[in-house]
Description:
Blueprint: E1 2-15, E2 18-31, E3 35-39, H1 46-53, E4 61-66, E5 69-70, H2 76-85, E6 87-91, H3 102-112, H4 117-130, H5 146-157, E7 164-168, H6 176-193, E8 196-201, H7 204-210, E9 213-218, E10 221-227
Amino acid sequence: xxxxxxxxxxxxxxxxxxxxxxxxxxxxxxxxxxxxxxxxxxxxxxxxxxxxxxxxxxxxxxxxxxxxxxxxxxxxxxxxxxxxxxxxxxxxxxxxxxxxxxxxxxxxxxxxxxxxxxxxxxxxxxxxxxxxxxxxxxxxxxxxxxxxxxxxxxxxxxxxxxxxxxxxxxxxxxxxxxxxxxxxxxxxxxxxxxxxxxxxxxxxxxxxxxxxxxxxxxxxxxxxxxxxxxxx
Length: 232
């Protein structure tokens, strides 16, 4: 089943009176359960694409059909619901709330997701245990290593049982060993739990090692697509 369909998608920004095209008429789709990576150098449009799929931005032209819903035509309230319920986002800079503990950061996501108060802490604890952080529940981001902070971010992204995980350079701030552990964790979620993953990265070797398909962007266009679609 196709979970995401991108059709003739473009995004142009204005810098003064000058148009800056970030994405130029791109089309592709993602099947349920796939792990697809978007690669390209800085300025190729990778993060712009992920922000559009995540409902953080709106396109200039084209469609972003998530299951049967076109994000391009959604109002802000619909996009907010999409971010809460349909996708879980993981960023390079972690984006954790600094004065809250690991447990509290995940509880906060569950609160926004409408989970009843009595269920939030047990659920948050379980999510952090799933990513190997049962011993760090009461630590704040400044007390965590980069890899541990990213694991908290992944647990938070999983809080409301998303249908797709969106990863924006999830290993960009990590050393090689820790980066490998994070990629293994994400690959395990995809392989063992069937969670669809869309990752943007500049690390083509990593993308090719873990993904079903790799799509290369160049100057806002699809320059190459390789790999095989996952067969259910």
